[in-house]
Write a structure and sequence with these properties.
eight-stranded parallel β-sheet; 23 strands; 21 helices; globular; 780 residues; seven-stranded mixed β-sheet; alpha/beta
Length: 780
């Protein structure tokens, strides 16, 4: 079995493995290509416009992942053309097999990019231009193959002119008009030729050669060689098939056994059937069978005692019997109740989520589906959808509830997090309390939830905006609770905030907990989102370009759930395709920073932790950093210390401490600046200094930091300290001093005047204690 797969990056392990095989094919098949160029393929994928072309790489692989061939397409979006750089098979055989499948896929991609033409080079097929008999036969076979698609060499131009004296066997430029087969216009051809020669052959073709070849295109339209191998009537120019990668669809085959008929239980099997009825005919999906995974994946996100309880409780119940919690004892981990009917309340958070004999196999199967979807993404697929019942986002580390038993999203995120940073975006109407509980103290998994405010929506006890994470996880949980009446436009504003936070986190993987209960008319919700809103939501998420696992959660209006699902995935696929075909900066701008000026009771320890984690300050300096905050809390303005705290979604990202100089009316000292390593190099330090300058000016001070900002690139060098004092009227004294490794003065000509020798050699601690000078630590 053969499949064609696009390689988007060299981060995912499966992609790295395929890329290594592609590089080996290049070494084997093309002896003249340099090792440097081979090694650059991964960088071109990561930084697509570094060489002013965007690389699109396809591999043809066996079911076991062996690369049998590959195609490398270069896209130039401004001029509007595509250039086939490489098309090679591992065996080296020509013909219509693997090479034909790859070329079909290249043409599909070129058409989806809306280019005006597909170009590539082929060596000549005449004895005069290529006397080597073996090579001549291969060239003829290749050009015969491309003629079947209507692609032919350009003639009556100087494209085959030798670059250097003695060059032979110069290649033809071949033009494929795709299914439009429009004439090749001269102006367009000249732009294409110049781009190819100046960018692809920059080190080989001198400017005068490029000018001469470009000017040689004088005909309009440009002539193509008459058909030589194929009759025009036999040409197959149409572009067939889809250009987008299909979404992996993993359905829990055991979901139907979990069917509770009592108490108006809305979480029923018809939900999955309604979704499949819309998705299966769409052509967007390819079915993937779920694979079994070990219980260790469950234990990574759930208390093993809870997992054992659920397994045993389900096994002990007779068929057709359901156990509903009705007593909820205070949870004492050392003394759980012994009575089974009471023990269910020990692990459950509500009264309407039953246990029965079918819960374990259905819930366990849902986890396997989510992990299978995560595995598909790890194998290089960009989107995978686990269509599962029962849902899971209300299941916490040691409790179940809200129709949820195991947290499918958390299991997938934990699995992915072993390979890179992972974000969870919960789109269900109800708060994703399970993910929040499981990852609340972790910084490698970001949890974001858009939901109804807990004042009126389940689970009522969590989902408030001030729940932002704890310990290492501070700032890595974002709740966006919305009012009871919310439409698609209001929802989209919250989603944009969520997307902005996820971009700032810059994860390698995204897990989306997909609920359709925000839909108009859902029996468990109060919002009014329509099908078009779900499509736009999907488009915004896909536009981030993050490999995404989608796990089904709620949504109970079966009349519309299928249509809403289809529209969401159409948007998700379109958004991702737009991202893949456009420019995108790998380093996103820092959003979501908020400033406050008064310390709180928790800030002394938070500041101490921040200063410690920079790895730049010695123990005495760390003590002083904490002491300054405590003094401000104790004495207020009388302490002489002013603070600016920069928080990024509740996480302390950086701060400055400054204050008025005693016995002056408008002069200030800057005592401290520290920026968390995760935010260094993202201009947060500059922004803090600017905020400080604004506050000083408002207070009537004369500090003018603009004189010192140009020195920031020097100060940013690791190991450097900048010491300065800010005086009224914009006058300043200061020096740059190397860190612990050096001790000589560094001057910044024209910016900082010489400093009095009495200050040289003092440590930061001595400066602070003696009030002689003040140290600014700039690592921003």
């Amino acid at each position: 079995m053969l499949r064609i797969r696009r390689i988007y990056d060299d981060f995912v392990p499966a992609n790295r493995e395929r890329l290594a095989q592609v590089q080996e094919i290049l070494r084997r098949r093309f002896a003249d290509i340099s090792e440097t160029e081979i090694a650059l393929i991964g960088e071109k994928l990561r930084n697509p416009f570094k060489q002013r072309f965007r690389l699109v790489l396809f591999v043809a692989e066996s079911i076991r992942g062996k690369v049998l061939g590959f195609a490398a397409l270069l896209h130039e979006p401004e001029i509007g053309f595509a250039f086939l750089d490489w098309l090679a098979t591992a065996s080296g055989r020509t013909g219509g097999g693997i090479g034909g499948v790859l070329y079909d896929r290249v043409r599909q991609e070129a058409k989806s990019l809306i280019v005006k033409g597909l170009f590539f080079e082929c060596l000549p097929d005449t004895v005069e231009a290529c006397p080597d008999a073996a090579l001549l036969a291969e060239n003829r076979s290749r050009l015969r193959f491309y003629e079947r698609y209507g692609a032919r060499p350009v003639i009556n131009s100087g494209y085959e002119l030798p670059v250097k004296e003695g060059d032979t066997c110069m290649p033809h430029l071949v033009y494929d008009g795709l299914d439009a087969q429009l004439p090749l216009r001269r102006a367009f051809a000249r732009k294409v030729v110049r781009a190819i020669l100046e960018r692809k052959y920059a080190e080989y073709c001198p400017p005068e050669y490029v000018d001469r070849v470009t000017a040689s295109f004088t005909e309009d339209p440009v002539s193509l060689r008459p058909f030589r191998y194929v009759k025009p009537a036999a040409v197959r120019a149409s572009v067939e098939g889809r250009s987008t990668d299909q979404i992996a669809l993993i359905v829990n085959p055991r979901h139907e056994i979990h069917h509770v008929h009592e108490r108006g239980y809305v979480e029923s099997p018809v939900r999955v059937r309604s979704i499949l009825a819309e998705l299966e005919p769409s052509g967007l999906f390819t079915p993937i069978a779920p694979r079994p995974f070990a219980d260790s994946h469950l234990h990574a996100v759930h208390d093993p005692a809870f997992v054992s309880y659920l397994r045993k409780a389900c096994a002990d119940l007779p068929p057709g019997k359901s156990l509903y919690p009705y007593i909820f004892p205070i949870r004492n981990k050392t003394r759980p109740p012994r009575e089974p009917s009471v023990l269910s309340g020990y692990y459950c958070i509500d009264t309407f989520t039953p246990i029965n004999a079918n819960v374990w196999p259905a819930a366990r199967g849902a986890v396997d589906c989510a992990l299978t979807a995560a595995g598909e993404v790890l194998n290089g697929r960009r989107i995978a959808y686990a269509l599962v019942r029962p849902p899971g986002h209300h299941a916490e580390r040691r409790s179940y509830g809200g129709f949820c038993y195991f947290n499918n999203c958390a299991a997938a995120a934990q699995y992915l997090s072993t390979w890179g940073k992972t974000a969870i975006l919960d789109l269900d109407y109800h708060h994703g309390n399970g993910q929040q509980d499981i990852f609340y103290q972790r910084a490698d998994v970001l949890t974001v939830s858009i939901h109804g405010h807990p004042s009126f929506a389940y689970p009522y006890f969590s989902g408030f905006a001030d729940e932002k994470g704890d310990g290492e996880g501070e700032g890595f949980n974002l709740n966006l609770p919305l009012p009871e009446k919310t439409d698609g436009r209001q929802y989209l504003k919250a989603l944009d905030l969520a997307v902005r936070r996820i971009r700032d986190f810059n994860p390698h993987f995204l897990v989306t907990a997909l609920g359709f209960d925000p839909a108009r008319g859902d029996p468990t919700g109060t919002w009014s989102l329509r099908a078009g809103d779900f499509e736009e939501n999907g488009r915004r998420i896909g536009a981030m370009g993050i490999p995404t696992v989608v796990v089904q959660e709620g949504g109970y209006r079966t009349r519309t759930i299928g249509r809403n699902a289809l529209r969401f995935f159409k948007g998700l696929s379109a958004g991702f395709e737009k991202w893949a075909n456009s420019r995108h900066d790998p380093r996103e701008r820092l959003h979501g920073v908020q400033y406050r000026h008064e310390p709180g009771e928790a800030d002394p320890k938070r500041v101490r932790k921040l200063v410690e984690i920079t790895g730049f300050f010695n123990p005495a300096e760390i003590d002083i950093a904490e002491e300054l905050v405590r003094e401000r809390l104790l004495k207020g303005d009388d302490s002489g210390y002013r603070f600016i705290f920069a928080e990024h979604f509740g996480r302390l990202a950086g701060y400055v401490c400054y204050g008025p100089i005693p016995a002056t009316t408008a002069s200030y000292d800057l005592y401290w600046i520290a920026v968390h390593p995760d935010f260094q190099g993202r201009s947060l330090g500059r922004r803090l200094l600017k905020e400080m300058e604004i506050l000083i000016v408002k207070a009537g001070g004369g500090a003018d930091l603009r004189r010192h900002i140009p020195a920031a690139p020097v100060c940013q060098h690791p190991g450097f300290l900048r010491e300065l004092r800010l005086y009224a009227g914009g006058r300043s004294q200061g020096l740059l001093r190397a860190g612990r490794r050096q001790s000589h003065l560094l001057q910044v000509p024209g910016l900082i005047p010489p400093v009095s020798p009495q200050f040289f050699g003092l440590s930061g601690t001595e400066c602070l204690r003696k009030s002689l000078f003040d140290t600014i630590r700039l690592k921003i």
